[in-house]
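To illustrate the input format used throughout this study, we show a single complete record. The first block contains the structure-token representation of the backbone; no residue identities are included at this stage. The design step must infer an amino acid for every position from geometry alone.
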């Protein structure tokens, strides 16, 4: 078995001029960059393609991320086996053949037979769809990162013994693709064009891989000898032990799981702004660029101190019983996420082996990433009713600090101190909830805990030299957050693939309130102002009697009565079932709801709208783009679309294709009412731009400015139909006006620009 240095001395062509040497380095760097760019272009591109099938719930991205991590593991495993068991002069032929097979899956599209997910939680169905559609090209491209580094290590160059710098180039390409896709590539080109361009880019990548492999063949011995790469003796690292290998897995697992958990937390409990998942993933990739280098950009003592303070403050912020604000949630959450990921990845880099074990290192890293994804995307939603995995992983990030789990190196005094910390935490667990309940104490607003925050932050800095103590403190704070009322533990919660639903009581105790993430989805009065229990079925919040949705129902019923016909109503999005109590005798109503958990809540003892007003309600389960398409054309007098998940935008319900579907199902004189209230996007402008592209549709806006707490909440809707005369009748509703002149591009299934509506809404508010 011949090492790289030995083969170089034994007859491979010596490294020639400096210009030639730099040429080799840049060709490998550019090929690595292109490979990563394509890898992270396919992720948002295909995730966008499946939105019409799965909707816009946070779990769609979480499960997609899990698939990408799993496929990355397969790619790294394939690269490891290729380097270990195939002669060096043949590895390229095998990989180029596998890449050629991947062309069978191109251009990227939804495969035949995968047009409708099953009812309920489609976790496995989504994984299967991704595997069939993009599994082969994704695995082929994902194998390039470790394979190109292994090839570079065999070129016989003076710097080939430590090729890990290529991983930073890989993550830089990933970062640019990720940030460029939603704001530049898709708005400018559209999905179909991007899928075609991706296929051409993949072909160019295969050519670049062939060039890199030619360089490897020139550098290694002839006749297919197997070549094992080794670092120079002076720089050689010790052979990895089972404990070292296990640490690679763990150091990759925690930040990978934290990526998904942090994204889910923000989308569920803070604010589900458009494309919110882009920011954490971009930061996650940027940490590799920062720390996967020989000389750290941030000195270790400073990084460890920043991590300790950031995570402690983030856990304290989660302990607040008041709703999080963007300022604190963004500041503490992002700081904790970034520093925790930096610490884990820097510790991982410092534990890297020499180049002989490079592919094994990346394989185990990828295994850790998959295990983290499985925990955060599949296991946590099944075992936690709320997003408890986020504070847990913040606490576990302290286990990623150097020496955090090595109690043997701690002094006797330090071990005694650790026992005291654990005892205090145990007492808090045992008596904390009962004491808080008895004396009605807990974490209130930020100001009331500023002193505690400062004290614990100082304590965290003092204990930086004692990693096990920091881990114990963090786990104690995690228990506080999950056992006592807090920012992630409030109300009666249920969790599904489509989000976290909480049934809470209003502060004055007068209403039961349904929250989906950060958005109100209905409220029902249970007590009057004097505190007496009442049995009210009067719809509240957006659905109050003078609101645009209730007014549209009432007007449609009156028009149907005049013509002596039976009115038929469709509602996309059940919520608490509030709209059911606007129905009248002789009308036919059908509700379309994607989540069985919502149906259960609407039929529970917390809300009695359905029980009292439509006890035998006609409810169709499934995504509305699929289930509503099976309805008979020209059959509905009124269709209300109110299916937003938290503040996330199910863009597939607002595209030209969706509007065309709605229009096909209403009667010639029927109308569609789209509830477009949103804090982040100017959906009024989106509809103004998109409606004219469908053809034959006419619309207007109705804006309700009511503000009376849960009793009456303001909303904005767009009413449109195939007959201007039918739509114009709704101008009688207070707050009606014409749609504005469009200044944005229309939304289609092929291209949905969110930056324009986001900036438009920002300008309106400021």
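Output of the design step:
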């Amino acid at each position: 078995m011949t090492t790289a240095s030995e083969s170089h001395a034994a007859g491979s062509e010596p490294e020639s001029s400096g210009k030639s040497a730099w040429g080799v380095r840049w060709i490998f760097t550019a090929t690595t960059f292109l490979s990563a760019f394509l890898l992270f272009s396919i992720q948002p591109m295909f995730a966008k393609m499946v939105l019409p099938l799965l909707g816009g719930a946070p779990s769609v991205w979480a499960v997609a991320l899990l698939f990408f991590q799993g496929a990355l593991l397969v790619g790294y495993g394939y690269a490891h086996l290729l380097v270990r068991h195939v002669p060096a002069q043949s590895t390229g032929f095998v990989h180029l053949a596998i890449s050629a097979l991947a062309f069978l899956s191109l251009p990227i599209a939804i495969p035949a037979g995968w047009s409708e997910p099953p009812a309920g939680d489609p976790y496995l169905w989504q994984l299967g769809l991704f595997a069939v559609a993009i599994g082969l090209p994704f695995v082929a491209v994902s194998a390039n990162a470790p394979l190109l580094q292994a090839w570079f290590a065999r070129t016989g160059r003076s710097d080939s013994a430590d090729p890990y710098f290529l991983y930073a180039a890989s993550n830089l390409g990933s970062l640019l693709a990720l940030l460029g896709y939603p704001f530049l590539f898709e708005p400018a080109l559209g999905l179909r064009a991007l899928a075609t361009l991706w296929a051409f880019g993949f072909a160019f990548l295969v050519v670049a891989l062939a060039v890199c492999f030619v360089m490897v063949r020139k550098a290694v011995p002839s006749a297919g000898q197997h070549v094992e790469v080794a670092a120079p003796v002076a720089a050689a690292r010790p052979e990895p032990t089972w404990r070292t290998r296990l640490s690679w897995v763990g150091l990759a697992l925690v930040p990978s799981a934290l990526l998904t958990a942090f994204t889910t937390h923000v989308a569920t409990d803070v604010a589900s702004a458009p494309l919110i998942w882009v920011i954490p993933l971009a930061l996650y990739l940027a940490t590799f660029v920062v720390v996967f280098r020989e000389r750290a950009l941030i000195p270790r003592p400073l990084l460890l101190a920043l991590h300790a303070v950031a995570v402690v403050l983030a856990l304290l912020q989660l302990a607040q019983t008041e709703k999080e604000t963007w300022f604190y949630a963004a500041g503490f959450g992002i700081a904790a996420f970034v520093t925790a990921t930096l610490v884990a990845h820097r510790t991982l880099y410092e534990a890297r082996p020499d180049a002989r074990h490079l592919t094994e290192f990346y394989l185990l890293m990828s295994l850790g990433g998959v295990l983290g994804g499985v925990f955060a995307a599949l296991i946590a939603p099944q075992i936690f009713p709320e997003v408890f995995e986020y504070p847990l992983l913040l606490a576990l990030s302290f286990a990623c600090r150097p020496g955090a789990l090595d109690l043997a190196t701690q002094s006797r005094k330090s071990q005694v101190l650790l026992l005291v910390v654990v005892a205090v935490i145990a007492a808090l667990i045992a008596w904390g909830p009962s004491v808080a309940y008895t004396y009605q104490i807990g974490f209130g607003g930020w100001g009331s805990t500023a002193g505690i925050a400062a004290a614990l932050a100082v304590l965290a800095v003092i204990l930086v030299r004692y990693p096990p103590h920091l881990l114990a403190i963090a786990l104690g704070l995690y228990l506080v957050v999950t056992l006592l009322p807090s920012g992630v533990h409030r109300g009666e919660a249920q969790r599904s693939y489509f989000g976290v639903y909480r049934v809470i009581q209003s502060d004055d105790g007068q209403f039961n309130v349904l929250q989906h993430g950060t958005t109100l989805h209905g409220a029902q009065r249970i007590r009057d102002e004097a505190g007496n229990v009442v049995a009210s079925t009067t719809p509240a919040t957006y659905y109050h009697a003078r609101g645009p949705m209730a007014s549209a129902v009432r007007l449609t019923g009156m028009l149907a009565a005049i013509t002596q016909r039976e009115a038929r109503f469709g509602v996309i999005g059940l919520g608490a079932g509030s709209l059911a109590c606007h129905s009248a005798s002789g009308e036919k109503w059908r509700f379309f709801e994607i989540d069985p958990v919502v149906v259960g809540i609407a039929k529970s003892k917390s809300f009695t709208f359905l029980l009292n007003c439509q006890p035998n309600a006609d409810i169709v389960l499934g995504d509305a783009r699929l289930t509503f398409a099976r309805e008979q054309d020209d059959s509905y007098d009124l269709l209300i679309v109110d299916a937003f998940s938290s503040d996330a935008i199910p863009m597939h319900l607002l595209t030209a294709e969706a509007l065309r579907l709605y229009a096909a199902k209403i009667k010639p004189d029927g109308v569609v009412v789209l509830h477009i209230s949103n804090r982040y996007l100017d959906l009024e402008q989106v509809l103004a731009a998109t409606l004219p592209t469908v053809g034959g549709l006419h619309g207007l806006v109705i804006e309700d400015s009511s503000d009376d707490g849960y009793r009456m909440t303001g909303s904005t809707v767009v009413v449109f139909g195939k007959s201007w005369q039918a739509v114009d009748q709704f101008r009688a509703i207070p707050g009606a006006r014409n749609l504005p002149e469009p200044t944005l591009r229309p939304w289609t299934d092929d291209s949905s620009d969110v930056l324009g509506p986001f900036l438009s809404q920002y300008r309106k508010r400021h």
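Structural context for interpreting the output: The mean pLDDT is 81. The CA atoms of residues 274 and 754 lie 7 Å apart.
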